[in-house]
Amino acid sequence: MSPLHLAAALLIVAMWGLNFTVIRFGLDEFTPFAFATWRFLLGALPALFIPKPTVPWSVLAGIGGLMFGGQFVFLFFAMQAGLPPGLTSVLVQLQGPLTVVLAALLLREHATRGQWLGLAIAVAGVVLLAQSISGDTPLLALGLALMSALTWALGNLVFRSARGVSMFAVTVWASVLPPIPLALASLLLDGPAALAAPILAPTWRGWFVLFYTVVPVMWLGYLIWGTLLRTYPAAKVGPVSLLVPCAALAISGYLTGEPLDGLRLLGVAVVLGGVALGVYASARRLR
Asked: Which residues belong to any copy of the EamA domain (predicted)?
């Protein structure tokens, strides 16, 4: 990569790594459904100025419902249930090997031994993590994080139908639909006051969280990521995402005091090792 693009890749790592801790703070301000509603409502604003990409609405709905709505609602509830930001960032990275497996099961694509082995190692890491968190965090939280990874992986399969168009435009237009069902769910489960909290009871921290998760993380992040994917082979850009949970763990440890030692550290290392093996196997397949 050129120095400029390398700096942009590291900026993404830092922004997306910090995002998990920012989300943790945001859940002190908003309910998960209200948080998700406002995140995607604000994220869809550029659709007023950017033409719709040449992608069917069904594809945009699949991306918005799975990769966006499903992924983040499960992630928000996992963190609300007590799963710390750094650990959450590690578990959602399972979307990589899960995408390969789902493509093999649902689309009859061939998965290599290395990809299957990577998934098996990552699953072993999840078992270790389950043993490490059972005393202080509900296992339900871990299950919700795995559901976040699963819906992200399913969304990846749909996203592949949107190749050849601007990732930023797809991101914006795929954000148009999720706020509707998310807002209805928030109204039914949380009430009107919770949904309208950013307007009726605004706080500087709440609006900072919404600003950060939309402007740097969504708009700037996907704009840079799309530029890197158009400039370099996916096999070269993909491994950059493995640095995100490393950054998230370091940032969460510093800002929230999230512990990372003993069995939990081993579990994190095994999960990321399995994901890395899957990424490496996928990169070799693309050569």
From this structure: 8-129, 141-277
Residue-wise DSSP of 112-127: -HHHHHHHHHHHHHHH
Q: What is the pLDDT of residues 205-230, one digit of tens each?
A: 999 999 999 999 999 988 888 788 77
- Contact (CB, 8 A) for 271 and 119: no
Q: pLDDT tens for residues 50-105?
A: 999 998 999 999 999 998 899 999 999 999 988 889 888 888 888 877 887 888 78
Residues 6+ apart with CB under 8 A from 134: none
Residues contacting 243, CB < 8 A, separation 6+: 13, 17
- Between the CA of residue 242 and those of 10, 18, 280, what are the distances in Å? 11, 14, 11
